[in-house]
Amino acid sequence: MFIERLSQFIENEGISIRSFEKEINASSGMISKAIRQKSGIHSKWLEEIVDKYPQLNPTWLLTGKGSMLLENERKEVKTINDPHENDVLVPVYNIEASAGIGFLNGSEYIMDQIKIPFAEKGDVAISINGDSMYPVIDDGDLAVIRQFPFHDYVMYGNIYVIVTDEASFCKVIKKSDNPETLLMRSLNKEYEDFEIPIRLIRYVYLVVGVVRMKKFI
Prior knowledge:
By secondary structure, the protein is of the alpha+beta class.
């Protein structure tokens, strides 16, 4: 149940319910009452919760699937040479080249293929450059992505790869005050938000997992 998972998250954070209410700008007693009565809360508070607590996995909060914290959603490939029988073979694309064509479907852009246990047929992997999505995605990690019908709906608060004619971005998509744009947010607080006009977006891919690429010095 949603409200029970929210209560579990608050307890995991080691804060009081009142402190949590203050953090999301909710009135005193709103969350505690919902927890006592095991009732829901208005959908507008979901945006506030995900915004204030980027480490919280919104999919887990809403459905109970996956891990509570996005940090725990990272998937590691310990050995590519010893894959499980049911692992899916996922192509690894050169994202810089792929950004130019938008849709990731050209075999000439495939750098490698790896077997990943949590992937599904049709998923692809790309390397993420930079630390704007730290601590969930580190520089050099592989993001396993799945094409997403963003023109139909957007699950705000999730991590996506957004492809335009000019570039590709790995960001959390947030709702913008302007209905003609989407707000892009990094998990690393050192990076500022920015907006992209919806008309410029060619494709959106949902990040379904992360493969930690260990670095040995």
